[in-house]
Model the fold of this input.
Amino acid sequence: MKNVLKTVIFCLTVYGYSQAVPNNINVNTSPNSDYTLINDFKGLDFDKEKARISFDFVEENTSGTIKGLDFKINFNPNDTENASFEGTAKVNTIDTDNFLRDGHLMWEKFFHKRKYPVISFKSKQVVAFETNTYKVIGDLTIKGTKKEVIITFTLDDHKLLGKTTIHTSDYGVNIHEEREKNKLNIRFYFPMVK
Done:
């Protein structure tokens, strides 16, 4: 550990950053130290109980939610290269505030909940885009069909908000014959643990 610190301080000095390292710095290198290396970031913690996903089906002017969320987010804005987003939602929790419509969506013609009980997402890359804005690129799987999507997230002190747009017909959920009429805007709300 001491050798690593000496190397870092030496490099900073050689490249003109000697003012960044005070001469009287006291670094505790014992195994129980709270000191961490420069790239040893701690990820943010999110509240699974309060997290939610909502959607708007544009053509029908219908809004709804999906629950039964099980997700793992490994994210720190200072270390996006090592970030990852992965999770599932239960199809049978789709709620559009219309009992009959929700029941129909479970049929084989639409989401086919018996054969495909969950919708899943797994990130492949996270890119810092603008100030407090991140693009999460990954695979969304609905009804056995996997397609790449990009979710745009914004971060503040209390939450991570995301949004993306898909067409349900791309996943074999054909509410209407025309693709554009199957447009679905999705929103993600991940509050941080206080």
Notes: The first strand starts at residue 52 and ends at 57. Residues 1-34 form one domain. Confidence is low (pLDDT under 50) at residues 1-41.
